[in-house]
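SAMPLE LOG
Freezer: B-3
Tube label: C17
Construct: single chain, 131 aa
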Amino acid sequence: MAHWIKFNVVGVFGFALQVGALFVLTHSSHPISYLMATALAVELAILNNFFWHQLWTWRDRPSLTVNETLRRLAKFNITTGLVSIVGNLVFMSILVGRLGIAIVLANLISVLTCSLLNFILADRLAFKVAA
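STRUCTURE (predicted):
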């Protein structure tokens, strides 16, 4: 249960970072498309969240080497990253592109929808203790 709570605390801060990046990328003097901005903002949040999960959420499962940390990052980025980026792009294209929902609200719905699967992937794959 402690991992789930910490995962969500990190997720809230990651989401704030993601929303901020999404806003800046879509509202700057040279805005980019909301889908490209979504992909970039999600990847930024993924990298941020990995750092905090490694340091705090799964502190009880430390990496013993730099190579292990890099393997974890790769697993985290491939699993939760793939779910987050693909899920967010699919949901954003439907919610914003087809239904006309505001970008930030659509992003919140997308993130919440993907979060449970991301926790399972992080807990069971990326931060699994090596046998």
